[in-house]
Specification:
The chain is mostly helical and 79 residues long. The protein contains four helices and no strands.
Length: 79
């Protein structure tokens, strides 16, 4: 069953992700799904080649946003 996942990323990363997906005839959602599929495999991450694009996504989430702030943001967004 497919479920919705909301991601917060900086605008530049979003634009790069959309362009990358469009060039490959896929969606950003599918790219994210594939990324997490790779991360969750039992193989050693040393054996998995991570593309430069995926590597560029590392660390772009804002770690200083509290769960309460994010919940408030979502509630405001979906009113």
């Amino acid at each position: 069953m497919k479920k919705k996942l909301t991601l917060r990323m900086n605008q530049d990363a979003i634009e790069r992700a959309k362009a990358y997906a469009a060039e490959r005839g896929t969606s950003v959602s599918k790219l994210v799904e594939q990324f997490f599929d790779v991360l969750s495999t039992e193989e050693s991450t040393e054996e998995i080649k991570i593309s430069p694009f995926v590597e560029s996504l590392r660390g772009i989430a804002a770690p200083d946003v509290s769960e309460d702030d994010y919940r408030d943001h979502l509630e405001e967004k979906h009113q």
